[in-house]
Amino acid sequence: MRGWEAVNATPIHIGSSGGNMVVFAKMRHPLRKAAGFSLVEIVIALGVAAFALVAIMGMLPMGLKTQQASIQQTTANEIMAAILNDLRADVVLPPGQASKEQDSGFGLHGRWQNVATPATLYFTNEGNQTGSVNQTGTGAVFRAKIQYLFPPSATTTVANVIITWPAQVDPTTVLPAGSVGTYIAVNR
Prior knowledge:
- With 188 residues, the protein is of the alpha+beta class.
- It has one helix at 39-89; strands at residues 5-6, 11-16, 19-24, 27-28, 119-123, 129-130, 142-149, 157-165, 178-186.
- The chain is built from one helix and nine strands, in the order ββββαβββββ.
Protein backbone atom coordinates (compact mmCIF):
# COMPACT_ATOMS: atom_id res chain seq x y z
CA MET A 1 0.00 0.00 0.00
CA ARG A 2 1.72 3.08 -1.20
CA GLY A 3 1.37 6.50 0.34
CA TRP A 4 0.09 5.13 3.57
CA GLU A 5 2.04 3.94 6.49
CA ALA A 6 1.00 1.95 9.43
CA VAL A 7 1.50 3.43 12.84
CA ASN A 8 1.75 0.82 15.53
CA ALA A 9 -0.41 -1.29 13.35
CA THR A 10 -1.00 -4.85 14.03
CA PRO A 11 -2.12 -6.89 11.10
CA ILE A 12 -5.55 -8.38 11.25
CA HIS A 13 -6.05 -11.47 9.14
CA ILE A 14 -9.44 -12.02 7.76
CA GLY A 15 -10.05 -15.39 6.34
CA SER A 16 -12.36 -15.96 3.47
CA SER A 17 -12.89 -18.33 0.66
CA GLY A 18 -10.82 -16.18 -1.72
CA GLY A 19 -7.80 -16.03 0.50
CA ASN A 20 -6.44 -14.14 3.35
CA MET A 21 -6.63 -10.34 3.52
CA VAL A 22 -4.54 -8.22 5.80
CA VAL A 23 -6.03 -4.99 7.21
CA PHE A 24 -3.91 -2.53 9.16
CA ALA A 25 -5.60 -0.70 12.01
CA LYS A 26 -4.89 2.96 12.81
CA MET A 27 -3.65 3.95 9.37
CA ARG A 28 -3.04 7.65 8.59
CA HIS A 29 -1.63 9.89 5.86
CA PRO A 30 2.13 10.56 6.21
CA LEU A 31 3.08 13.94 7.71
CA ARG A 32 4.46 16.14 4.94
CA LYS A 33 4.93 19.90 4.92
CA ALA A 34 2.26 21.56 2.80
CA ALA A 35 3.87 23.66 0.02
CA GLY A 36 2.30 27.03 -0.99
CA PHE A 37 0.49 29.91 0.63
CA SER A 38 -2.78 30.01 2.41
CA LEU A 39 -5.66 32.11 1.11
CA VAL A 40 -5.28 34.55 4.03
CA GLU A 41 -1.61 35.13 3.21
CA ILE A 42 -2.43 35.82 -0.44
CA VAL A 43 -5.20 38.29 0.47
CA ILE A 44 -2.88 40.18 2.86
CA ALA A 45 -0.11 40.32 0.24
CA LEU A 46 -2.54 41.64 -2.40
CA GLY A 47 -3.82 44.24 0.06
CA VAL A 48 -0.31 45.52 0.81
CA ALA A 49 0.53 45.63 -2.91
CA ALA A 50 -2.70 47.50 -3.71
CA PHE A 51 -2.03 50.06 -0.95
CA ALA A 52 1.50 50.68 -2.28
CA LEU A 53 0.21 50.97 -5.85
CA VAL A 54 -2.44 53.51 -4.82
CA ALA A 55 0.22 55.57 -2.99
CA ILE A 56 2.51 55.56 -6.06
CA MET A 57 -0.34 56.47 -8.41
CA GLY A 58 -1.25 59.33 -6.06
CA MET A 59 2.26 60.79 -6.33
CA LEU A 60 2.41 60.50 -10.13
CA PRO A 61 0.52 63.76 -10.95
CA MET A 62 2.65 65.72 -8.50
CA GLY A 63 5.82 64.30 -10.07
CA LEU A 64 4.66 65.20 -13.57
CA LYS A 65 3.76 68.72 -12.45
CA THR A 66 7.19 69.14 -10.86
CA GLN A 67 8.88 67.92 -14.05
CA GLN A 68 6.88 70.38 -16.19
CA ALA A 69 7.78 73.25 -13.83
CA SER A 70 11.44 72.23 -14.04
CA ILE A 71 11.35 72.22 -17.85
CA GLN A 72 9.76 75.69 -17.90
CA GLN A 73 12.30 77.01 -15.38
CA THR A 74 15.18 75.67 -17.48
CA THR A 75 13.77 77.19 -20.69
CA ALA A 76 13.27 80.54 -18.92
CA ASN A 77 16.88 80.48 -17.71
CA GLU A 78 18.10 79.74 -21.26
CA ILE A 79 16.06 82.70 -22.57
CA MET A 80 17.49 84.87 -19.78
CA ALA A 81 21.04 83.89 -20.72
CA ALA A 82 20.39 84.69 -24.40
CA ILE A 83 18.97 88.13 -23.53
CA LEU A 84 21.87 88.90 -21.18
CA ASN A 85 24.37 87.88 -23.85
CA ASP A 86 22.60 90.11 -26.38
CA LEU A 87 22.64 93.06 -23.96
CA ARG A 88 26.33 92.51 -23.11
CA ALA A 89 27.24 92.43 -26.79
CA ASP A 90 25.35 95.69 -27.36
CA VAL A 91 27.94 98.44 -27.02
CA VAL A 92 27.95 102.17 -27.58
CA LEU A 93 29.16 102.77 -31.10
CA PRO A 94 31.34 105.72 -32.07
CA PRO A 95 29.63 108.44 -34.10
CA GLY A 96 29.17 107.46 -37.72
CA GLN A 97 29.03 103.69 -37.14
CA ALA A 98 25.75 101.85 -37.49
CA SER A 99 24.67 98.83 -35.50
CA LYS A 100 24.64 95.48 -37.27
CA GLU A 101 22.07 94.13 -34.87
CA GLN A 102 19.42 93.85 -37.55
CA ASP A 103 21.25 90.68 -38.63
CA SER A 104 21.19 89.07 -35.18
CA GLY A 105 20.02 89.63 -31.64
CA PHE A 106 16.63 90.57 -30.26
CA GLY A 107 16.40 94.13 -31.60
CA LEU A 108 17.29 95.77 -28.29
CA HIS A 109 20.17 97.93 -29.57
CA GLY A 110 20.05 101.45 -28.18
CA ARG A 111 16.83 100.94 -26.25
CA TRP A 112 18.44 102.12 -23.00
CA GLN A 113 18.31 105.66 -24.38
CA ASN A 114 14.53 105.49 -24.00
CA VAL A 115 14.70 104.43 -20.34
CA ALA A 116 11.06 105.00 -19.46
CA THR A 117 9.78 102.45 -21.97
CA PRO A 118 10.41 98.80 -21.10
CA ALA A 119 11.10 96.35 -23.90
CA THR A 120 8.94 93.22 -23.95
CA LEU A 121 9.91 90.14 -25.93
CA TYR A 122 7.90 86.95 -26.43
CA PHE A 123 9.26 83.41 -26.79
CA THR A 124 7.89 79.99 -27.72
CA ASN A 125 8.06 76.88 -25.57
CA GLU A 126 11.32 75.97 -27.34
CA GLY A 127 12.88 79.34 -26.42
CA ASN A 128 12.65 80.92 -29.90
CA GLN A 129 11.63 84.55 -30.20
CA THR A 130 8.19 85.10 -31.67
CA GLY A 131 7.02 88.52 -32.81
CA SER A 132 9.16 91.64 -32.44
CA VAL A 133 9.92 93.99 -29.55
CA ASN A 134 6.69 94.83 -27.69
CA GLN A 135 4.60 92.71 -30.11
CA THR A 136 3.52 89.18 -29.34
CA GLY A 137 3.74 86.47 -31.96
CA THR A 138 1.94 83.18 -32.37
CA GLY A 139 2.67 80.43 -29.87
CA ALA A 140 4.11 82.76 -27.21
CA VAL A 141 4.68 80.97 -23.89
CA PHE A 142 7.29 83.18 -22.19
CA ARG A 143 7.30 86.97 -21.72
CA ALA A 144 10.61 88.80 -21.20
CA LYS A 145 10.42 92.33 -19.84
CA ILE A 146 13.56 94.46 -19.94
CA GLN A 147 13.21 97.62 -17.83
CA TYR A 148 16.10 100.10 -17.90
CA LEU A 149 16.59 101.84 -14.58
CA PHE A 150 17.30 105.51 -13.85
CA PRO A 151 19.65 107.25 -13.95
CA PRO A 152 21.45 106.11 -17.11
CA SER A 153 24.91 107.50 -17.59
CA ALA A 154 27.10 107.83 -20.63
CA THR A 155 28.93 104.65 -19.71
CA THR A 156 26.50 102.42 -17.84
CA THR A 157 22.81 101.64 -17.71
CA VAL A 158 21.28 99.03 -15.41
CA ALA A 159 18.54 96.81 -16.76
CA ASN A 160 16.11 94.64 -14.82
CA VAL A 161 15.27 91.53 -16.89
CA ILE A 162 12.28 89.42 -15.84
CA ILE A 163 11.03 86.31 -17.65
CA THR A 164 7.48 85.19 -16.77
CA TRP A 165 5.17 82.48 -18.03
CA PRO A 166 2.56 82.01 -19.39
CA ALA A 167 3.02 84.94 -21.78
CA GLN A 168 -0.68 85.81 -21.77
CA VAL A 169 -0.55 86.75 -18.08
CA ASP A 170 0.51 90.35 -17.44
CA PRO A 171 2.76 90.15 -14.35
CA THR A 172 1.78 93.69 -13.28
CA THR A 173 -1.86 92.64 -12.77
CA VAL A 174 -1.89 88.86 -12.19
CA LEU A 175 0.59 86.54 -10.48
CA PRO A 176 2.23 84.43 -13.23
CA ALA A 177 2.78 80.68 -12.95
CA GLY A 178 6.54 81.21 -12.78
CA SER A 179 9.24 83.81 -13.19
CA VAL A 180 12.99 84.39 -13.14
CA GLY A 181 14.74 87.72 -12.99
CA THR A 182 18.09 89.47 -12.72
CA TYR A 183 19.82 92.82 -13.10
CA ILE A 184 22.55 93.55 -15.65
CA ALA A 185 24.80 96.53 -16.36
CA VAL A 186 24.63 97.38 -20.08
CA ASN A 187 26.10 100.05 -22.34
CA ARG A 188 29.53 100.00 -20.73
